[in-house]
């Protein structure tokens, strides 16, 4: 099998250094800027996560509230039906 992308020495097709290690080294040179930019955005993302989970708990609370009231009303209707039949 010839030299491929995942060779252990990092030499892909072509001369040594053209493989994934060279690409990783190039990424490492640009990643600090990306990391700094993400750090600037991190508080906003955290706020969005809390915002989303807050809305989900708000909606599930309302759903539980409504299903409880529906259950209460159906129980009341059944009670009235039974007592009126007596």
Helices, by number, come to 1
Strand content: under 5%
Overall shape: rod-shaped
The percent range for helix content is over 70%
Q: Tell me the span between the first and last alpha carbons.
A: 89 Å
Which series of helices and strands comes N to C? H
How many E-type strands? 0
C-alpha Rg (nearest Å): 31 Å
Largest sheet: none
SSE class? mainly alpha
Mean pLDDT: 74
Give keywords.
mainly alpha, single chain, 1 helix, 0% strand, rod-shaped, 86 residues
Write a brief structural summary.
By secondary structure, the chain is mostly helical. Helices cover 77% and strands 0% of the residues. Residues 1-21 are annotated as: Disordered.
Walkthrough of the structure:
By secondary structure, the protein is an all-alpha fold. The chain has one helix and no strands. The relative contact order is 0.05. The mean pLDDT is about 75.
């Amino acid at each position: 099998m010839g030299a491929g992308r995942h060779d252990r020495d990092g030499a892909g097709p072509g001369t040594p250094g053209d493989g994934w290690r060279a690409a990783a080294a190039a990424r490492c040179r640009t990643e600090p800027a990306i990391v700094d930019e993400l750090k600037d955005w991190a508080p906003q993302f955290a706020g969005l996560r809390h915002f989303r989970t807050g809305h989900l708990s708000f909606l599930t609370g309302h759903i539980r509230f409504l299903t409880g009231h529906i259950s209460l009303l159906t129980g009341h209707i059944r009670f009235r039906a039974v007592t009126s039949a007596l």
